[in-house]
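Final report, closing paragraph on structural work. Over the funding period we assembled a curated collection of sequence-structure pairs, and we close with a single example.
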Amino acid sequence: MELILPLVIIVVFMVFLTRGQRKQQKQAKEFRQNLQVGDEVMTQSGMLGVVVELDDKEVTVESTHENYTRWVRAAVGPVPAQFQPPAEGEEEETEANDSSQSDSGDDGDIPGIIESNDK
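Its predicted structure, as stored:
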């Protein structure tokens, strides 16, 4: 009886630990099943490219102009957000923030450096 409670806690803990991984695997499987010509993908080795041809088990990816490679469907996935170019509105916001920071009146001084006029 004393062993039942720790075993139940361990089983519940394991279920919660694997839950997120199963969700990611399901999303990856759906992505691969719904691949279309023109989709941007990233291979498991980190190569970025565009799908140019699909087969039942293979995907042909163009990484640079007329540079085609064939991959097993299981080796391609979606491009992570950190590698996608920023949207039109986001890019303009960062440029606006950069220009407002440079107009702070520092006259090109390095932030955090205090110049002493004592000579």
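The first helix runs from residue 4 to 33. The beta strands are 40-43, 48-54, 58-64, 67-72, 76-78. We thank the funder for supporting this effort.
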